[in-house]
Amino acid sequence: MSDSTMASREIRLASRPIGEPGPENFELVEVAVPQPRDGQILVRNTWMSVDPYMRGRMDDAESYIPPFEIGKALEGSAIGEVVASNVASIPVGATVSHFLGWREHAVLDAAEATVVDTDIARPQDYLGALGTTGLTAYLAVTEIAPVRQGDVVFVSAAAGAVGSVAGQLARKFGAARVIGSAGGPEKGKKLVEDFGFDAAVDYRAGSLTEQLAAAAPEGIDVYVDNVGGDHLGAALDAMKVHGRIALVGMISGYNASEPLPGPSNIYAAATKRLTLRGVLVSDHLHRFPEYIGKAAGWLADGTLHTEETVLEGIEQAPAAFFGVLGGANTGKMLVRLAS
Ligand SMILES: NC(=O)c1ccc[n+]([C@@H]2O[C@H](COP(=O)([O-])OP(=O)(O)OC[C@H]3O[C@@H](n4cnc5c(N)ncnc54)[C@H](OP(=O)(O)O)[C@@H]3O)[C@@H](O)[C@H]2O)c1
């Protein structure tokens, strides 16, 4: 590298996985960072997010977001510090959020970066409770399957980023009882003791339908579905008449190499007159200012508890990604790229 160019590292897609992704699908490459041109900034990324939806982008399939390209750096949410700027409104030293994660440095047009306020929250909060996972949780319980006073609410993948916030916000907006599902007794304990759920069910420990019937004997008003498959089936069994389901994600099928059948009891949606409504957070990004204003207050006053699982260094990013798919995280899974 010459003196005028800076060396940086990025993770590229080496090949497309069939089923579960592995290290062979990723490649760590050293690159020269170009100088920012007029209207651009150079960002030293400090944190990046790994998210379950990225598994879908590894497939060559049409979806709501284009597939990652083989041989090119992956993308995703990241936070960083501006180290060079040709943009008057974004000074050197500002902290910005943007979508060029999976790399240590990023050159961005001004329109692709959002300056975040690190006086009201930590930088990494903008990838978690104040980022897309937090906003998704908020939308799920306020708009997609609105929680009403006295409701019984069930949240799956409840110890994760979306789920842990959704459960707490459901309570904030009036739920009388909040039940979460997670894998293993440790996460179940955490749901109750740290995230304030009333009860936890462990999907690895026997029938979900039976566990839900015991945890919510009178049924469920609202289900926030992050998992699909067996969880959606068990929730359909437990729903009350006129119940509401927010279809947020279906992580149980993300590594499937064949299309999966839907729940065999889907007809319950008709007999119980349920509302099942999907959400994509990308349709609602204009809600960020309103949401961050509220959620930063909840973080500051301690009424929203968050956790994160952190792996260190760009070389750990694929492992963090495998971890979020497999349940190695509590709260938001993050990679710290620099301090
Ligand atoms: N619609 C949208 O706009 C939107 C936006 C953000 C996220 N999402 C979706 O929301 C869901 C949660 O995302 P997140 O970012 O918050 O991830 P997360 O919940 O922090 O992490 C994913 C969790 O899923 C659980 N899991 C994995 N495989 C499972 C299986 N077969 N059965 C049950 N649980 C399983 C694991 O927890 P356990 O240890 O409990 O198994 C893992 O920790 C995902 O489906 C994601 O795609 C949707």
What can you tell me about this protein's structure?
Helix content is 24%, strand content 26%. It is built from nine helices and 15 strands. Strands 3, 4, 5, 6, 7, 14 and 15 form a seven-stranded mixed sheet that branches. A six-stranded parallel sheet has the order 10-9-8-11-12-13, sandwiched between helices. The longest helix has 13 residues, at 132-144. It has helices spanning 54-57, 132-144, 161-172, 185-193, 208-215, 229-238, 268-271, 288-300, 317-326; strands spanning 6-13, 26-33, 40-49, 78-85, 95-98, 105-109, 114-115, 152-155, 177-182, 199-202, 220-225, 239-247, 275-278, 308-312, 332-336. By secondary structure, it is an alpha/beta fold. It is globular and about 65 Å long. The chain binds NADP nicotinamide-adenine-dinucleotide phosphate. NADP nicotinamide-adenine-dinucleotide phosphate (NAP) is lined by residues 51-53, 132-133, 136, 157, 159-163, 182-183, 187, 203, 226-227, 248-252, 279-281, 324, 327, 329, 333.
SSE order and pairing:
Blueprint: E1 6-13, E2 26-33, E3 40-49, H1 54-57, E4 78-85, E5 95-98, E6 105-109, E7 114-115, H2 132-144, E8 152-155, H3 161-172, E9 177-182, H4 185-193, E10 199-202, H5 208-215, E11 220-225, H6 229-238, E12 239-247, H7 268-271, E13 275-278, H8 288-300, E14 308-312, H9 317-326, E15 332-336
Parallel strand pairs: 8-9, 8-11, 9-10, 11-12, 12-13, 14-15
Antiparallel strand pairs: 1-2, 3-4, 3-6, 3-15, 4-5, 5-7
Bound molecules: NADP nicotinamide-adenine-dinucleotide phosphate.
The site of NADP nicotinamide-adenine-dinucleotide phosphate has 30 residues, from helix 2 and helix 3.
